[in-house]
Amino acid sequence: MSQGSGKQTTFFKLGGGLPAGFDLLTDYLKAPEAYELMADLLETANLDTHLIRIFGRTCPMPRRIAWFGDQSYSYSGVQHPARPLPGNIQRLAQQLENDLEQPFNGVLLNHYRTGEDSMGWHTDDDYDAGEYPKIASISLGATRRFRLRPKSDPSLSMSVDLDHGSLLVMGAGTQLTHQHALPKMRKALGGRLNLTFRWMEPK
Ligand SMILES: O=C(O)CCC(=O)C(=O)O
Description:
This protein is α+β, with helices and mostly antiparallel strands and 203 residues long. Helices cover 16% and strands 34% of the residues. The protein has helices spanning 31-44, 87-100, 174-177, and strands at residues 22-25, 51-54, 57-60, 64-69, 73-75, 78-80, 106-112, 119-122, 135-141, 144-150, 158-162, 167-170, 178-182, 192-198. Strands 1-12-9-14-7-4 form a 6-stranded antiparallel sheet. The structure holds 2-oxoglutaric acid.
C-alpha cells in the first residue's frame, strides 16, 4: 500500500477479470466526494462535442470531451489546445501521483450522456509518453462495462464494470499489448464521466 494520500491503494483482482497490468480499486473516491466532483466538472469543464468522419460521413462523436494538460493533444483528428488543469482535477492528479508514485500532466475527460454514448476499440498510444507509463482512470456516475482485449488475439476479450468512484490503473506497457473500449449499453442509464490521467513527455 502506498503511503501517499492515506487512501487504501491495495488493489485486488476481480474474479477471473482483469489481465496482468490492469488493477481496479472500487471506492477510490467515496460516493459523496465523487458526486461533488462530477457535478462540478459538468458545470465548469466546457465539454465539447466534436465531429468525426466515419466511412466518409461526418457525424458527432458519441460522447463529449474536454482536455486539460501542459501540452496540446491531437485526438481523433481534433487538436485540443493546452489548458491548465482546474483546481479539483489538479488535486486529484496530485493524490494519484502520491498513491501511484508517478507524475501525471494531462487529463482527458469524457462525458457519456446516456448508454448510447460510447468509445470504440483503441489504445492510448497516440502521444509521446516515453516508456508507456501507467494511465489512471477515474469513473464517476453510471456504472459502465469496460472491455479489454489482447492485440495478439482479439477474440480473448474480457470486461469489467467500472463503478462510481472507482480507479482503474492501466499498467506500464499495457497500451502496447491491449486495446480497450466502452461499448454502448442499451438499457436506460444516467450520465457518466471518466477521467484518464496520463503522462506526456515534455517537448
Ligand atoms: O470511459 C472509459 O472508461 C474509457 C476511456 C478511454 O478509453 C480513454 O480515455 O482512452
